[in-house]
Every structure is written in structure tokens, then in C-alpha cells.
Amino acid sequence: MVEIKSKREIELMKEACRITALAHKAIEEAIRPGITTLELDKIAEKVIKENGGIPAQKGYPSEEKGVPPFPATICASVNDEVIHGIPSSRVHLKEGDIISIDMVTFKNGYNGDAARTYIVGKGSKEAEELLNVTKQAFFEGIKYAIAGNRIGDVCHAIGEFVESKGFGVIKEFQGHGIGRSMHEDPAIPNYGKAGKGIKLEPGMTLAIEPMVVAGNPNIYELEDGWTIITQDGSLSAHYENTILITEKQPEILTIL
Ligand code: MG
Asked: How far apart are the first and last CA of the chain?
């Protein structure tokens, strides 16, 4: 069941989303060679808490048996790490690294979810192109995120665009509805068939999130039960916003 949010719920979601965007801005400004991913985590946590929010990913249970819940505010995934990287005082960013930051703020009962990939200092041509294609894939997808269209129209547009640029999409993880819960219906894969799936309606709130790899999109999970890595070591990027479906182009709630 895909929930339709009321005007009041949408206002509450906008506030959670605004805080997520503020925390991303603070991280973008702080990223430099030498900083650790744990320091970035503390920066995001401070912004979220100062604005009355709660870091929603912290304490999120793992699907793997015997693995502790996610311990941090942000997912910090460096280079060949795709998603769910755990911030660490041992991971110092280096010039030319790319880092994907994913975070969710919870406030007044609602969630706001966004991810960005950043280059540390100056990156390779391949890294720059990967980041551009990943971000552009989001915008190609949401051109179709309009009331009356099907969710498959969005999925199809993302996948086609990425593959037309010679990159691959991750198929094991996907976007999702969002609201009171971090993950709601529908599932929104980054590939699919146009004309399929649920019909979009005004008031749906969705997290659209292309995860793109420069090489082969096969992945595996580290023993920490969280970190997802590309099998061939190729770079991976992530770009996500929470959007609101309307009769026209969607509103992007996690951009300031
Ligand atoms: Mg996210």
C-alpha cells in the first residue's frame, strides 16, 4: 500500500528533509584530504540534533543475524564501497577519493532521506563522469515522476540513461516510499519496464536513489554485515533525494 500524505504530513516531512539537506551541506564543506569518515559523521549528527532531529539510521537493525545495528548517523562509503559503509576514525580521506554519504533525519514522526557522492579534492576523469551520470540519472528519472505515470516509467528512465553512458546500476538495492517509516512501499529499482507498477498520485513521497558503478555491477557484503562493495573494485556513486509527487514536476524536498 502506497500512502498518500496529507498537507500537514507533507509539511512535517519537509522539515525532516530540510535538516538532512543542511547536514549534507555541512559535510560537503568539511570534506578535505585527511579528515576521517567518523569526523564527518559527528558533523552531520551535530547539525541534525541542533535542528531538533534524530539520526534515523543510527540503531537501524541489520538483516544479517548476529550483526549489531548500524552504529552511526551517516553511511560513509569510499571508492568501491557502494552503500552502508560504517564511519571510522581509521578511514582518512585522500585526495582523489570519492565518498558517498547517505543519511536520514527523523523529526516529528517523519523521515527525510538523501545521499550524495563527493570527490575529495581533484578526482579522475572517470570519477567525475561517474558522479555526473549518477546525479543526472536521478533527474532523468524524476522527469517521469508525475501523477498519472507509473513507477516503472521512472525506473526505466534511470536504468536506460545509466546504461547509455556505459555504466551499470546496482540491482540488489533500490529506492523506496518514505514517510513515518524510512522504507515504505513502493520499491523503486533503478531499472525496469516503462508502463509497469503502481500509478503515481499527488501526495506520494518517494526516495529516488540511483546507485551506479563504473565497472561490473556485481557486489558483495563485508563481514561487518553492512558495507556493500563492488566485486571488481570499480568506483561506485549514489545520488538520492526525497521527492513529493504532484500533478506537475515533483518537488524535491532534500535540496535547500
Ligand atoms: Mg538514503
From this structure: 30
CA torsion through residues 187, 189, 195, 200, sign: positive
Q: DSSP code of 200?
A: P
pLDDT in tens, 187-227: 999 999 999 999 999 999 999 999 999 999 999 999 999 99
Helices (H), 1-150: 7-30, 37-50, 125-142
- How far apart are the CA of 151 and the centre of ligand 1, in A? 18
Please provide the size of the chain in residues. Answer: 256
pLDDT digits (tens, 9 = 90+) for 8-61: 999 999 999 999 999 999 999 999 999 999 999 999 999 999 999 999 999 999
**Quick count: other Cβ atoms within 10 Å of Cβ 23?**
29
In the numeric block, the cell 503515481 is attached to: 200
Fold of 7-252: Creatine Amidinohydrolase (3.90.230)
- Helix then strand then coil, % of the chain, to nearest 5: 25, 25, 45
pTM of the model: 0.98
- Expressed in angstroms and rounded, the spacing between residue 172 Cα and the centre of ligand 1 is 15
State in Å: Cα 29 to ligand 1 middle: 20
